[in-house]
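Thread: quick sanity check before group meeting

JM: Hey all, I'm pulling together slides for Thursday and realized we never actually wrote out the predicted structure for the chain we discussed last week. Dropping the sequence here so it's in one place. If anyone has concerns about the input, flag it before I start.
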Amino acid sequence: MNVSSVPDGILRLEQLPSPNQDVTVYALRGDATTGPIQRIETTRNLSLPPRRNFSYQHPFRLKILHFNDLHGHICHFTEHGEVPLFANMVSRIKALRLQAQERDDMGVLVMSAGDDLVGSIFDELLNAKETDHPVHVSYRLFSAAGVDVATLGNHDFDMGPTILAESIRRDANFPLLSANLTGSSLLQSQILPAALFIIKGVRVGVIGISTPGEIKEQWLDTFSLLNPIPTIHNILPALRPLCDVIIILSHLGYSISSHAAAMRYAGDVELAKSLSPGSVQLIVGGHTHHILNERGLSPSNIINGIPIVQAGNLGEFLGEVDITIRDAPAVTNARLTRTALLPTDEAFHHHHIEPIEKQVKPLLDRPLGRTANTPDLDTECIRNDFAAGESAFANFITDALVSCCHTQGYHVDLAFVDATSIRSGIPVNDVLTYGDWFKVMPFADTIILYELTGQELIDLVQDNARRIDLPGEPHIERGFLHFSQELRYTIKLDNQRSRIKARNITFANESLENHPDKIFIAASTSFVREPARSWEKIKSHDPQFPIFHLHQLPHRTTNLFLRTELVNYIVAHGGVTTQAGVRSDNRLTILYDTKNSKNQG
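JM (edit): ok, ran it. Output follows.
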């Protein structure tokens, strides 16, 4: 059914196939963003089964298993061998499902709160040509494991609407939800605002909601994600009478105030504050990678009587929530279990995961070239010293970024990156494989072009100098940038961060002060300085500490993926070598004041 055939103000109920014999699934189709839903209508010849009667003496236990931000990490490949993750979750899912099959007073639903792909080597299987049978690894394995429902996270849109819609059609036999999604008939034909699950007569409504934050700019003219709060208020009054339990499956993030990820409009806390007590029984969240209620439901995670749960990221935890329905439903238990402590479902791993691993391992082992004998390439240097001064590894990446843009026909004057572009080091003086480089750049970051004047570039460099890691202080993410070879400058350190200055700022060996109005084009990435926002928030209250707001500069996307372009550059230059650009060339000089012994961050 095309969503355009459903009039505004109406959601249409239709039954979906369900692989779980204990659960009947219904789609709610329509656009929940246009205004209040006036009614929910059923398709022809559809009638819901009778409702279950509840009493204090005969309660029903609904078990919710949840995870979020898996990012395709169905397992970890380490130098010591493979660490199973999803197969361990499956063992718990199957055990509870088997238990529920033997009882009339128990039901199980399994949920993902989004960001199911982008961040693991398995992403590459989705980039395969159609003749190579592209695979959305997470959706295919969720289907095999009997996951009941998922919402869409920001990274689920990274590869574009066409690939996402095709992945859902091909690999997902469960409903994908995003109630605040609008403007795309392609996506809205595959993605629902809500779904209704009937488990042994118990009606469970699930509304999905997605963050508008961190959506790649190249897709913003193909669909929209609107303010989630009005959308929830549009749909909730119409859905409430139909359900015994309502759950919001959210990829908004925990709270706007947490600054753990880029967010817009609201997080789960702000959403819960907008709702009346009792209107929703549970918010299952994601996006900010919070570890909530690890040892039991915390009072601080109950807002307006609505518990909020979240299970970290990358498959480290499996969340479990009990909703007990007597005269009224209530969350009676919530906790997290480390997946490493769960047994592995060996049969599931053998039949479903091993064939996928066989497809991806040749990609991991593909050699790209050699690496330089330079300590700056090592992971220890990246983790400890990256923002403390010049980095030969960062020099290689920024210079390569300029070259890649020129190769692709984009004029750029310089490039800059921060630690978000470099997540790991690489083997030193060794063969470099694609798997090694994927660890450096695991996400689908695209190349962005910023436009700024000479004076703005001076201001950016001055701002950057104040973000450097100082000796004798804890290192945190402040968004310190490394620049390509065209730009050179000196940082004079001071024991007061606000007094740190950049000096002798030159571009192409000319002082930038001589060209304050010249327009420069700088290449960077779609995620630059995002983790630094919490530090920026703190410093924004200090009048002695002006913040340069990089994201307010005019900018445009190139639709080029950073990792893809860098891999092509590495292969063309025989590796990450001195000849390819791994060098320290004094583009950044640090002047230390040995009189200062106390530094303030």
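AS: nice. The first strand starts at residue 10 and ends at 16. Residues 229 and 271 are 6 Å apart (CA to CA).
JM: adding both to the slides.
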